[in-house]
Amino acid sequence: MNTSDGTSSADRASTRTSPGGTSTRDADGLLAEQLLRLTRRLHRIQKQHLEPVGITPAQSRLLRTVAHYDHPPRMADLAERLEVVPRAVTSLVDGLEAAGRVRRVPDPTNRRVVRIELTDPGRNTLRELRSARRAAAEDILAPLTVEQREVLGGLLSALVDHVPERRC
Question: The whole model's pTM is what?
Answer without folding.
Answer: 0.69
